[in-house]
Amino acid sequence: MITGLLSLLFSCGGDDDICESGEGTPRMKVSFLNFESGKERTLDSLYVAVDYGSGKVQLGGQAKITSRIIPLRVDDAPYTDIYFRVTNKGKESKVRVNYTTRSIYVSPGCGIKKTYESLNAVLDPATVIPVRSIENGQNFIENEEKTNLFLLF
For the stretch 130-148, what's the b/e string if a residue is b when 16 or more beta carbons lie within 10 angstroms of its beta carbon? Predict the structure, then answer.
């Protein structure tokens, strides 16, 4: 009986039980630039909301940041709408990120992850405050180290 209990304990904690080594679906990295100079900019605050297909989800605000990691949609939609504000109740800019996705099997614990390719972001021209312009960065997401989108404030 003790041998059975011990084998049960040791068999329940394999490497594939959880996805902890960064093998899950990567998120998009957004960095910030000064509109006039084009140099990296630290924002005093940034609030982000994302429409994952059933309305806006507030991701909250962060202070004194130079970049932000944002999860994209994981359904089969070819785009994600992201909303940026520099104050909690202020005006927001809408950016639509277009892409194609591929599903890749990782492991029993992680399951399937999405990869994003052919990223192309478009700033809604009716919402150019506070984001004044955008520049596309790396046009695919393989990890969260490279910037995929630059917002110019």
Answer: bbeebeebeeebeeeeebb
CA of 110: how far to CAs of 3, 22, 87, 128, in Å? 30, 10, 36, 39
Structure confidence by residue, pLDDT tens digits, 48-90: 999 999 999 999 999 999 999 999 999 989 999 999 999 999 9
- Residue 65 neighbours by CB under 8 Å, 6+ apart: 32, 42, 43, 46
Indicate the SS3 state at residue 152: strand
Of 62, 41, 60, 59, the residue nearest 51 (C-alpha): 59
